[in-house]
Every structure is written in C-alpha cells, then in structure tokens.
Write a structure and sequence with these properties.
The chain is built from 9 helices and no strands. By secondary structure, it is mainly alpha-helical. Helix 7 crosses helix 8. The longest helix has 44 residues.
Length: 220
C-alpha cells in the first residue's frame, strides 16, 4: 500500500502560523465583545443616572436594562462608585466636545463665541430630556469633597470658569476675573432654574442677561 505523502516544510510552517493567528483572532473578538458590553452598561447607566438620580438607581436595574450579566458589569466596574465616576467622566468629555464645536465656529470673535455658548446652553436646558446639570446633580447627591464623582464634577466647574476667563480676557474687559465669576453664576443659575421650570421658565433670557453683564463690564 502506498504511504501518504509527508507534509512539506511549507505546509508545516503554514499550519504552525495558523495557530497563533487563530488565537489572536479569538482574543480580538473577545476584546470587541467586552468593549461592546462595557459601552452598553455605561450607556444604560448614564441614561438611568441622569433621568432618575444616581442614588435611586441600583446595579440590578442597570443589569436588567442593559441585558448584560452582573458578572460582566463587575468585570468592567468593580463597584457602583466606579460606574458613577465613569458616567460623570463621560458627561464631562461630552460637555467639552460640544463646547469646542461651538467655539470652532466663532474662534476669531470672543464675544460672539461667548454668546454662542449661552445659546447652546439655552437650547440644552429647554430640551425635552433636560433633568438638570449632571455635575451639579452629582455634587448634590455626594456632598463629601473626597468622593471621586464629586471631584470630577468640581473639575468641570473649575474648567468652565477657566474657559470663560480666557474668553473675557480676549474681549479686553478691565476686570475679566469678575466677569467670569458673574458668568459662571449666571450659567449655573440657569441650569438649576431650568431643572424646575424648563423651557417655560426664564432660560430664554440667558443670552440677554449675558449681554447685559458684558456691556456693564465693558463700561467699567
């Protein structure tokens, strides 16, 4: 009987190479699956935390709504606090992404840029899904300064003041720090009032109030 032909050197090399390639493909698939699960968990938690409040939403509800196993949730977020921090970090990144998009359209005119920011904040507050400023909400729910989620919220407000300060300095007002303080108070006041009264409240006067502050600063 004729013996089967021995595998060639090329065939052996190809077969050997296929093993790690297959393992790498499996690992890549698993990584993509894990990334999708993390995204789904975070998106679900973000919507629930914002609409219903962080403390009112338990991990079991996030698991139920996301369709992800609880073990998977804890694989990505060891504690609920970790999930809360990820939510606030995501809100922070989205806030500055929106800010930068507005700023890019008025980059050569600081006053026009400032007024454009007030307009998009107005639109946000007047929107049907508005439930307050996510950062102020979190700060209210976690009063301890050391809480990591509150730290992210505080960082956002500090950055807001810094960006406003840079804008008003470019406008050439004599007391940019004072105007930046006033604008922060104006914006945060609009966020809080808007949570109560929404588009039926005074939010649509936000830009006019900002113009009045700018005019007063320019006269002084």
């Amino acid at each position: 009987m004729r013996k089967p032909a021995a595998p060639t050197k090329t065939a052996i090399t190809t077969a050997a190479a296929a093993v790690p390639e297959s393992a790498a493909a499996t690992a890549a698939t698993a990584e993509r699956g894990a990334s999708k699960a993390r995204t789904r968990i975070l998106e679900t938690a973000a919507e629930l935390f914002y609409q219903e409040g962080v403390r009112a939403v338990g991990v079991d509800l996030v698991v139920e709504r996301s369709g992800v196993a609880k073990t998977s949730l804890y694989r990505h977020f060891a504690t609920k606090d970790d999930l809360i921090v990820a939510f606030v970090e995501q809100e922070d990144a989205e806030y500055w992404r929106d800010w930068d998009q507005v700023a890019a359209k008025e980059k050569d005119d600081p006053e026009a840029e400032l007024l454009a920011h007030l307009r998009w904040i107005t639109r946000h507050i007047a929107g049907p899904k508005y439930r307050g400023c996510a950062f102020l909400n979190v700060a209210t729910e976690f009063p301890a300064p050391a809480h990591p989620a509150r730290a992210v919220a505080t960082r956002n407000k500090i950055e807001l003041h810094r960006r406003l300060s840079l804008l008003v300095k470019r406008m050439g007002v004599s007391k940019p720090g004072s105007l930046a303080d006033q604008l922060v108070l104006l914006i945060d006041g609009a966020y809080v009032n808007g949570q109560l009264l929404g588009k039926k409240g005074p939010v649509h006067s936000l830009e006019a109030a900002g113009r009045a502050l700018i005019a007063a600063a320019q006269r002084s």
